[in-house]
Write a structure and sequence with these properties.
globular; 21% helix; 209 residues; 6-stranded mixed beta sheet; hydrolase; alpha/beta; RibonucZ/Hydroxyglut_hydro; single chain; Metallo-beta-lactamase, Chain A
């Protein structure tokens, strides 16, 4: 069973997820955002096997370097955003100087690809390329737990007005990929409360019907 803890981090209240399997001492982190103090305190004494990034916008990568250096763990990111991780201009941190200073990280150790299966903490994570919010956005499916980044939210969808965003791609990612999963699939988004595929398929005003 996958055990999931969420942390709402930084001024944009980005959801970071700490995932553990049967071994209490090993974990994976998805999207360590800005001001990661609560997450850092929680992972004291834990071995972090990897940092998985749904995409490389600044509010999702703010804690990457601190955690990577502290824990010596690799970072996984889709190659379409490999340069975003290292560039404050591309990851958006230069666009909101009142929110954050420039954020730049070292390159990711591993690329992500559509259909890739990654075995971590005794579980298998399948990668789905779900662009639209950003060109390299991905979602991770582990059993019936889906981590959708900024693609699908409860009763909402990701914005597409940022550089590299494309509305047609976003709706195709949701309807053509995420909505193919079973109704009971639990959705853990990049912002806001968790939801389910069945609920969003029936009720989300942007993509239902």
């Amino acid at each position: 069973m996958l055990r999931i803890e969420s942390f709402s981090l930084g001024p944009l209240q980005t959801n970071a997820y700490l995932l553990r399997g049967d071994d209490d001492g090993r974990a994976v982190i998805i999207d360590p955002g800005m001001n990661p103090g609560p997450l850092l305190r929680r992972i004291e004494g834990l071995e972090i096997e990897a940092i998985l990034l749904t995409h490389a916008h600044f509010d999702h990568i703010g804690g990457v370097e601190e955690i990577r250096k502290l824990k010596g763990c690799p970072v996984y990111l889709h190659p379409l955003e490999s340069e975003w991780l290292t560039s404050p201009k591309l990851n958006g941190s230069l666009m909101w100087p009142t929110v954050t200073g420039p954020i730049a990280c070292e390159p990711a150790e591993f690329d992500l690809a559509e259909g890739q299966k990654i075995k971590l903490i005794g579980h298998e994570f399948t990668v789905y390329h779900t662009p639209g919010h950003s060109p390299g956005s991905v979602s991770f499916l582990c059993g019936d737990d889906l981590f959708s980044g900024d693609c699908l939210f409860k009763l909402s969808v990701g914005r597409t007005d940022l550089p590299g965003g494309r509305e047609a791609d976003l709706y195709n990612s949701i309807r053509g990929t995420l909505f193919r999963f079973a109704d009971e699939t639990k959705v853990y988004p990049g912002h806001g409360p968790k939801t389910s595929i069945g609920f969003e398929r029936a009720n989300n005003p942007y993509v239902s019907g």
